[in-house]
Write a structure and sequence with these properties.
With 124 residues, the chain is mostly beta strands. Helices cover 10% and strands 53% of the residues. The chain contains one helix and eight strands, in the order αββββββββ. The N and C termini lie far apart (34 Å).
Length: 124
């Protein structure tokens, strides 16, 4: 039983760390919080003063994007992390999200109903 627990923690560690988004305009640090995985913005091509200007909540449009969790609530299920959310600061919308590793790349998929978009992120 202890080996299974250690093996599960080791697998989660594979996704931990900093990842460059597909567009190369942001870096997201993935970290564990309790039994869930989150990801926060730690670098932006436009600079650290970039604001969340497209947020649907007008009160949040003046906040800086640095440090904002764009991935949240992902839970380990077999070889994926599922049932989370991803925030897209380019349009201010939040989507359902799953992530998984394919080789050394991270696949990040956002969903709206049956429609989805998958991005490939690379380790930084």
């Amino acid at each position: 039983m202890a080996l299974l627990l250690v093996a599960g923690c080791g697998y989660a560690q594979d996704i931990m760390g900093k990842w460059l988004t597909e567009a190369g305009d942001a870096q997201v640090e993935i970290y564990q919080a309790g039994d869930k995985i989150n990801g926060k913005i730690v670098w932006l091509k436009k600079g650290p003063e970039t604001k969340d200007e497209h947020n649907s909540d007008a009160k949040l449009r003046e906040r800086k994007l640095m440090g904002v969790n764009i991935l949240s609530g992902l839970k380990k299920k077999e070889d994926k992390w599922e049932d989370g959310k991803i925030y897209n600061p380019k349009n201010g919308k939040t989507y359902k999200c799953n992530i998984w590793l394919e080789g050394k790349q991270l696949k990040v998929r956002g969903y709206i109903g049956f429609l989805y978009e998958t991005q490939t992120w690379n380790r930084k």
